[in-house]
Amino acid sequence: MAAEDGTAPLDESFAETIDLSGRTFQRYAVTNGIYFAPIDEGEIARLELMHSVLSKVFDDRLIFPPVHAPERILDCGCGACDWAVDVAEHFPDSEVLGIDISPHMIPEDLPNNLEIQIDDLNGRFTFPTDHFDVVHSRLMASGIHANRWRSYVQDIFRVLKPGGWCQMVEIYFNAQSDNGTLERGQ
């Protein structure tokens, strides 16, 4: 049964794990080809390091657009919640919502203005139109199916308030070799 805000109880299939090559993965993500990385302590440490690196690269700016007092912020693919926690602490009067496919990496102690929901971002958003001041999407290239990107971006813009901002950060993965042994299509 869905709650008044449209949320539903956690589908237990999201909680199931599988061990592969000594690492723990979310069974749902592996079965559906969604998330390539493990969900264990090593992955949490990698995500924390990536957040730290990106924080340095971006001069500790959490939100790039000129947003000074956002009411609602959505973090798509929040992972271990590093960015979501930082932005919730930086904007204590804001409501921050993090969405991720895995419940396994969420820290126990979250700021009061941060809520985490478990969902697959490859499905259409159920949020109301014109709802968020900022939507943040970082390093989702490996978690969003190629045929979902167009509707994913459309969903982001639909849920943004007029004058709201979408902030996307991706890394261009270009596999290549200097000696020419990696050919196109490999």
The percent of residues in helical segments reads 10-25%
Q: Give the strand tally.
A: 7
Overall pLDDT confidence: 90
Describe the sheet with the most strands: 5 strands, parallel
Structural class: alpha/beta
Order of strands across the main sheet: 5-4-3-6-7
| Strand residue percentage | 15-25%
- Distance from N terminus to C terminus (CA atoms, Å) equals 46 Å
What are the secondary-structure elements, in order, as H or E? Answer: EEHHEHEEEHE
Radius of gyration: 17 Å
Low-pLDDT stretches are none
Tell me about this structure.
The protein has helices at residues 27-31, 41-57, 82-90, 149-159, and strands at residues 17-20, 23-26, 72-76, 95-100, 114-118, 132-138, 160-169. It is α/β, with parallel strands linked by helices and 186 residues long. The relative contact order is 0.14.
